[in-house]
């Protein structure tokens, strides 16, 4: 029995040593009398929150793999110390308990892995969409527009905000996969009638429109509090890779739906923002952009 206990302790030690080493290195780094020369907070990058969420899911996946290997190994060693006898093999009631724990561990690992992989897939797709949208909007920046990414508000993040002569645009990016069995232009066609979006003639959605209106309203409220007067914010849904067929002119649509490659559609509106007002708006946006978008780590764990 002593040998089994020793083996279990050895496995636990091997598992804990890397974690202890990481904690020790972090502690030593904090003790160093050196600090980063960059003291001011930086503006968020496209999809920064999604990237952090993706990294968090990767860490959880590593933890699941570790425990799925560690727990059965410990149980196996304990059982080896109990039932293996040179003369015969004998089972006890405690062995059934060990087997149940092992089975529960494997089942939990499989469930957790499937859940994490699904979240990783969603985060990866969202990140790809936000990065594509940011890249396609970049030419507007060279023309004097302002582009912000991943602004954090109480009700959620705004993927992108564009500020230019024709207005302020709160952009909700949606990454939607195409149907592999639909060939030709129909497979990448998104039809917008002002109330919902029909993807490839199959899947109809109105949630992206509602989300775009919600974040634009929150942004307008924030700017009104900062500037002292109401600033209209146009909600936009960005669909990278899709061909948009609009049944209403942009001027009559409550929400603008575009492929970000066709960003010049946003320049077709009447100019309503002059240079001094644009500076005030961007200053207010920079203020909230430099605030940390992430919740404390323990709250993220509880939420998940």
Describe this structure in words.
There is one protein chain. This protein is an alpha/beta fold. It has a domain at 140-292. It has helices spanning 2-31, 48-83, 93-142, 207-227, 275-289, 297-303; strands spanning 146-153, 156-164, 167-173, 189-192, 197-199, 203-205, 233-238, 243-246, 256-258. The strands form two sheets. A five-stranded mixed beta sheet has the order 1-2-3-7-9, with helices on both faces. It has a four-stranded mixed beta sheet with strand order 6-5-4-8. The chain is elongated. Residues 125-222 form the NERD domain. Keywords: Membrane, Transmembrane, Transmembrane helix.
Report how far apart the termini are.
Answer: 40 Å
Strand neighbour order, sheet with most strands: 1-2-3-7-9
What percent of residues adopt helix (DSSP H or I)? 40-55%
User: Poorly predicted ranges (pLDDT <50, ≥5 residues)?
Assistant: 293-304
Instruction: Decide which structural class fits the backbone.
Output: alpha/beta
| Order of secondary-structure elements | HHHEEEEEEHEEEHH
Please give the largest β-sheet: 5 strands, mixed
What is the number of helices?
6
User: Could you say which overall geometry the principal axes of the C-alpha atoms support?
Assistant: elongated
What is the β-strand count?
A: 9
Mean of pLDDT: 77
What is the radius of gyration?
Answer: 27 Å
> Into which percentage range does the β-strand content fall?
15-25%
